[in-house]
Amino acid sequence: MPSWPASHAALLALGLSLAAPALAWAQTPPTPLLAPPSGGPGIRLDPPAGATTTPLPQERTARPPAPTVTARPLPALDHESAGWNRAEGGFPPTLWQGSAWPGVARLLDRIPAPSATPARHALARRLLMTAAARPADAPAGAFLERRLVRLLALGDAPAATALARAVPQARLDGPRARPAAEAALLAGASADACKWARATDVDMADLFWRRLLLACDAADRQAARVRLGLDLLREQGHEPGGGFAALLEGAVGLGDKPAVAGPLDATTLFLAIQAAVPVEEKAVAQATPAIAAAVARTDSLPVALRLAAAERAAGAGLIEGALLGRLYAEFPLPPERLAEPLAEAEKHPGAEGRAVLYQAARLEVVPARRLERLAAGWRHARDGDAGLAFGLAAAPLVREVSPSLDLAPFAGAAIRILLAGGEGAAAMRWLDMIGRRPGDEAAMAAHAAAAPLVRLARGDEGPAWNAEAVRRWSAGMGGPAAPRTAIGLSLLAALGDLAASDEWLALSQDPGGPAASVPASATVVWFAQEAAAREGRLGEQVALALVALGQAPVPHPLAAFSALNGLRLADETAAARRIAVEIALQAGL
């Protein structure tokens, strides 16, 4: 949960008052700052053969020309523009039109990696995977290289591999080959990686390629080549690492097969899997999210090892909830451990405890008992910073239960699990159910607490959001100055739902003394987003929103407002809503 001082709440009120011009129209759907270009999706990137362009005549008037947007021809798409088109979920091919390469490169490098939540990851992946013309002045190969490197930094090896496969192999040379090869190893496409390692144009002065070539030879059981390669490395003064050398020798029968204790990189994991060598849990725990996701996807590894990795990967958006649910269900548990699942889970604070509750809920046919176990699993996961991951896996189990008045005590947990799993419509049905119990104080309190969450997810299709709803919810959060109130009001305001003026006035009180400074990065990014929106630079708008959100699961309220309002201006309201719900859940709303 966030822990901003009361002075930050005061600054939130001040900052949002400065944003009054934007907020004044925020209660209605956003109006594009620039008219959309004519032509539509079928616009040609090049004029027809033989066509000529006639310049417009100069105005014959003394008055100065009105400010306007200069039309720029679309740059041609090439191999560096490979990726998703609009039908596949990408942005328009004009994503980077008007953006200069130096600024784009800096922005892409600043996108937080790995992502803090699944929705932020999905947005970053869309940005990097979109089939769009490269920015102006980008050196040949630089745009493709940066996309591959940043996808790998996000931990999304399958996406990076898909991008690499869409590019002619001749273009995957030099610095572009290494991230493509690393991604292929982690995505289960080792044949691609070994093909690049055996190419004649890779830089064998880079120890990565020497190690990968040895690993590929070991996977093919080429003992003589492995022995020769190790000898050559040592003669040249290179040491592949004692653990890696022993792993190579064990893989081809030249020695024992030692367990991998770490550090675990893509090449070591590939070799360990090929040689059926045990991998220790601590090695996976210390590895990058990309490694964790690869471990989670590898069926030949033990379920217990994969489950801990899968929770990390799911929380960062790197695997689907269905895979995490399957690993929860396959975790080896004898029947007696499921007899008293709540007590059993308390003995195990990690993924094992959540597997107990998931399996017990999955086997339970009595709705109240199933929801009791899933609610306990939600609390267990939330306390262990795995709430979003557990929600992704558990949402299908909640969806199988129909809302009914006798299940009202579990409605709050059901709503939150469903929202974590992206099930906004199902969450709304549960909220409607507890709203029909006007005499039940507990149900009314649960309704007031969950209403803004569903409103974030559903907008006008969700519950009403008015002054009375704000007051009821704010009281349950601990009052207007509470950190949860500040972040909740910021998220709602960014999506067009303004709170009552007295709530903002209450936020502006500062009992804690002098106001702490607003993060400088939030201020800079806010103004940069405004400039990008005015000039129609969509790629920059999206990238700046991700930069503003930062690495923390719960960003500063002003940073959250800036980012999500910027996405709404870019007509990315659906993405903004998904991100807002995740922030709210992480903040404990």
From TrEMBL:
Organism: Stella humosa
Signal peptide: 1-26
Keywords: Signal
Highest taxon in the source lineage: Bacteria
Region (Disordered): 31-73
Protein name stated in the entry: Antifreeze glycopeptide polyprotein
